[in-house]
Structures are given as structure tokens and as C-alpha cells.
Automatic annotation (TrEMBL):
Keyword Ligase (UniProt): yes
Family annotation (InterPro entries): Gln_synt_N, Gln_synt_N_sf, Gln_synth/guanido_kin_cat_dom, Gln_synth_cat_dom, Gln_synth_gly_rich_site, Gln_synth_I
Domain (GS catalytic): residue spans on this chain: 107-445
Name of the protein in its database record: Type I glutamate--ammonia ligase
Chain segments annotated as transmembrane: none
Pfam families: Gln-synt_C, Gln-synt_N
Length: 445
């Protein structure tokens, strides 16, 4: 760590960095930032930077408000969109109390704690997110809703289109920040795009997702458009998911791989999937944390609505992707409920905890779904044992409230805060009178 700190201090000096932004997230997953002068960085490494935690959503109760942000030198990067005028860098922070204890409500710490539990069982957790978002002409919207920048579709090549330049600029910026991109393409909805980040350990991935959202927003501003990670901004069009491929490694060996097994998937891999399925409804209020998230889950367009798994079945909640016979190390499972608006630290902590629970308890994996689950009738789904995911945020909160796994993984303070905050959101949503009701009822009744 001392070598890393020295490297950071030397780089700040050599590149003439004028500001260093210290980044962390609140419980909902909003990025927070405080800028310090280069002269303060050494002190920040040794003592942290103090701030009022009670002013940040969910971080502390008001009577224990003093917190310290400790920059993690391994996350140091200069921010490419700030240019050469006033070079600016950033580091992610770990949050502690004044006596040096990790702050229980720091989302990064929640994930670190769960990763430590996996490490105790001999596992490293790798993730690879496919992040979808919409590009709109502006954040304003008229009677027909938000206006996308184009009307293209999946993998479309749009000559001279905004999205090409946008993706190229974004990918270059991400690479400049040390974030490797695997693919980028136009998605199924008008103005919808997807950029997939390369495999990394889950903590690095969560940091990368927070950086990614900032980069996408910055490039949009630069290009005169607006980017949104809202799960379902356009009625009747696909929602924006964050399908995540996951694997556990034991040292250099992929614990999900077993030569000759069905889909080359090991017993550990099968138990991990069984854990994800069994606890899917309990973790939904975090993987899909907004009222709007359920418009995506229940709006068709390849979003999963039922708790099933399958091989290459895009209607399933958990998918075992095609494997390449020569690449045993690439065995993985894909979780398809997660949306682009989730707090990645808390979501990955819960997905990992659910999978680990399946391994610890030896859960049996139910039969796979071979049919398109959406095309079955309710009676057929019931007969096959395909339970639905929660249909609303309210429904998801009922499952979460009863969940020992979620309470234990998030810790009491985060658990209670999420329930409180999300109940308030549901209450506000439920009490409004919507255009749908006015249109349907006002003249007729």
C-alpha cells in the first residue's frame, strides 16, 4: 500500500494534478464527491478526510454523524474529461468512524465484507456486467414521453448517428481510466445502447460501474444529449438491464467448470444458481430498487419475470451461456434481473451471498426451463413450479423484510434504511393520481 501511495503522490506531482476528487456512494448508489488540493492527499492517506455522514442518504444516524473518507490508492486515475486545463484525478474511498472502524453503512464495505466471507470459503468472485442505457435528446419530455436520439434497433449500424460517436468517445475515455471494454453496440430500443465491461473481481467491477455511469453522463453533456440509466424510460420499449455474468474461482481454477458435466457446469456452479433462484425475490428490492424497475421486469422485451434457469434461454432469470469447448475457464452464470440503476456494491454483495448460501446449504437445482417462459399460461407455469418475481417494489419489500440472508449481508443499519427509504418511495408513488387514471376515468365516471 505504501508503494501505491508513493506512486499516487509522485503521479500527482509529475502530471501537475490540481484537484483530487474523493469518491464514495450513498446507500441508494448515488456517487458522492469531495475535491481536495494535492497538498492534502498525503494527510488523507494517513488520517482520512472528515465529513458529516448524517447529510448523506443512509450513511449514519444523526447522533453519530462524524465519518472519515480514506482514499484507496489502488483506484487512483486522472479524469480524461477534465482535460489539460486543470488536471483532476479521482480515488474511491473506504468510510470509517473516527475510531477507525469501517462504517457499517458504507456500501463498499458491505461488498468487501461479503467478498471476505467468500475468500474464507476459498473463492474469488468475478463479474462481467452488460450495461444498458438510453440516449435522449434532452432530460425534458413532452406528452409522448422522452425523445430518443435515434430510432435504430439491435446491433444497427447508423451512418452518422449520434450513438457511434458517443460509444467511441465513451469507450476511449473508459480505457483511459483503466476500465477495459469488451463490446459496445446499439441495443433494441430507440436510442438504447449497451457497453460491456471486461471480467474483473467484483469490487473492481462495482467501482468501474460507478465510474462508467459518470463517464456516460459526461460524454452525453459534451455531445449535447442526455443519458439515462432509468430501468424503463419509454413505455412499450425495452428496459435497461445490467445482466451480469458471474463465476467463482479457487486460485486459478474456475469452480463453476467441470469437464463432461451438463453444460460443463460443476456441482458448485449448480448450487450457486440454486441459491440465486431461492433468494431472488428477497434480494429484488436491491437488485431492482425503484418503482420503475418493475415496469422493466414485467414489461416483456427479454426482461425476466419468473424465477427459472436455462441454457441459452433468454426468458430465464439465470442463464448458463454457451461455453467454448476449448475455454473451460469461461464457465459462468448470467443473472438477468439486475437493472442499470442498482447500487452495484449492495447488489453484488447480495447476489454473491445468495450463491454462497446455495453452496453452504447444498441447495438442489430445480429442472431447467426449456420453453419460452413468457409464452406459457399461468397454469402451465404453476404446474412447472415457476414462481414469479415480485410484481412491484412494495411486493419486493415484503420479501426483503422477512429475509435473514439480506439482513445479515447488508447489516442492520443498511437493511433498515433501504426498507424505510423504499417504503417512502412506494407510498409517494401509490398516492399520486396518474395520467392513465385521468384518461380512463375522468370523463367516463
Amino acid at each position: 500500500m505504501d508503494k501505491q501511495r508513493d506512486f499516487v503522490l509522485r503521479t500527482i506531482e509529475e502530471r501537475g494534478v490540481k484537484f483530487v476528487r474523493l469518491w464514495f456512494t450513498d446507500v441508494i448508489g448515488t456517487l458522492k464527491s469531495v475535491a481536495i488540493a494535492p497538498a492534502e492527499v498525503e494527510g488523507a492517506f494517513t488520517e482520512g478526510i472528515g465529513f458529516d455522514g448524517s447529510a448523506i442518504e443512509g450513511l449514519t444516524r444523526s447522533y453519530e454523524s462524524d465519518l472519515l473518507a480514506h482514499p484507496d490508492p489502488t483506484t487512483f486515475q486522472t479524469l480524461p474529461w477534465r482535460g489539460e486545463i486543470d488536471p483532476t484525478a479521482r480515488m474511491f474511498c473506504d468510510i470509517t468512524t473516527p475510531d477507525g472502524q469501517p462504517a457499517v453503512a458504507d456500501p463498499r464495505h458491505v461488498l468487501k465484507r461479503t467478498l471476505a466471507k467468500a475468500a474464507d470459503a476459498g473463492f474469488t468472485f468475478y463479474t462481467h456486467p452488460e450495461i444498458e442505457f438510453y440516449l435522449l435528446k434532452s432530460s425534458a419530455y413532452g406528452p409522448d414521453g422522452p425523445e430518443p436520439v435515434d430510432s435504430a434497433g439491435y446491433f444497427d449500424n447508423v451512418p452518422g448517428g449520434t450513438a457511434h460517436d458517443f460509444r467511441r468517445r465513451s469507450v476511449r475515455m473508459l480505457e483511459d481510466l483503466g476500465i477495459s471494454v469488451e463490446y459496445s453496440h446499439h441495443e433494441g430500443g430507440p436510442g438504447q445502447n449497451e457497453i460491456d465491461l471486461r471480467y474483473a473481481d467484483a469490487l473492481a467491477t462495482a467501482d468501474n460501474i460507478m465510474t462508467f455511469r459518470t463517464v456516460i453522463k459526461e460524454v452525453a453533456i459534451e455531445q449535447g444529449v442526455y443519458a439515462t440509466f432509468m430501468p424503463k424510460p419509454l413505455s412499450g420499449k425495452p428496459g435497461s438491464g445490467m445482466h451480469t455474468h458471474m463465476s467463482l474461482f479457487e486460485g486459478d481454477v474456475n469452480a463453476f467448470y467441470e469437464e463432461g458435466a451438463q453444460y460443463q457446469l460443476s456441482r458448485v456452479g449448480r448450487q450457486f444458481i440454486a441459491g440465486l433462484l431461492k433468494h431472488a425475490s428477497e434480494i429484488a428490492a436491491v437488485t431492482n430498487q425503484f418503482v420503475n424497475s418493475y415496469k422493466r421486469l414485467w414489461g416483456g422485451d427479454e426482461a425476466p419475470s419468473f424465477i427459472t434457469w436455462g441454457h441459452n434461454n433468454r426468458s430465464a432469470l439465470v442463464r448458463v451461456p454457451m461455453y467454448k469447448p476449448s475455454k473451460g475457464q469461461s464457465s459462468r452464470v448470467e443473472y438477468r434481473a439486475l437493472d442499470s440503476a442498482a447500487n452495484p456494491y449492495l447488489a453484488y454483495a447480495l447476489m454473491l451471498a445468495a450463491g454462497l448460501k446455495g453452496i453452504e446449504e447444498g441447495y438442489e437445482l430445480p429442472p431447467e426451463a426449456e420453453d419460452n417462459v413468457w409464452s406459457l399460461t399461468d397454469a402451465e407455469r404453476r404446474a412447472l413450479g415457476y414462481a414469479p418475481l415480485p410484481a412491484s417494489l412494495d411486493h419486493a419489500l415484503e420479501f426483503m423484510e422477512e429475509s435473514e440472508l439480506v439482513a445479515e449481508t447488508l447489516g442492520e443499519q443498511v437493511f433498515n434504511y433501504v426498507l424505510l427509504n423504499k417504503r417512502r418511495e412506494w407510498q409517494e408513488y401509490r398516492s399520486q393520481v396518474t395520467p392513465f387514471e385521468l384518461k380512463s376515468n375522468l370523463e367516463m365516471l
